[in-house]
Amino acid sequence: MSTRIITLIALMIVGVLSAQSKESANLIEAVSYFNNDQHKDAKSLFEKEVEANPENWLPNYYLALIYGVEALESRNAQDKMKSLLETAQVYQDKANNLQPENAEVMIVQAMIHTGWIIYNPMVYGRDLSTVVDHLYNKALTIAPNNPRVVFQKASYDIGKASYFGQDTKQYCAEVGKAIELFSTFKPESSLDPSWGLILAEKTYSNCNQ
């Protein structure tokens, strides 16, 4: 093999490694922004990462989560809420295709469906509530010790019980269990989901008021 060919191969390898390093740097920074509640900056970098690395589920997951949360926070502005839910689902569809059996992905899908139920309970309530129950139960079967799964299911159950005037005590206990799980749960990597503890603690505090 000639020196010229070896040099070309080496340059190609360096180019690929450099691109991967840049993508990883973007993702690391985006997750850092997300974990510090700087969602606007996080979205910009996650969107770049989706374009650069379409086979990575994490950028799509985080974007679906961010837009889904923003939708729930916009429940008093229906047009905005609808647009945010639609955007969240675009990224969620990609995450679903890449990680169909991932409990973290399932609970974000359940969150988005819950947003549609809140948006128009008469249209979406009956059908999507069954889907949401199924998603949470399946996620719990797959990852029973994942604190986000336990917390999100309990939070949804609290909301549903409150809506129907039912006792929430058993679900508040599940939130307490989730808080305990946060202390021992180890994400697969520093970029994998680790959010939820502060929200769980706030929910638990409200449970006991």
From TrEMBL:
Superkingdom classification of source: Bacteria
Protein's recorded name: Tetratricopeptide repeat-containing protein
Species of provenance: Flavobacterium okayamense
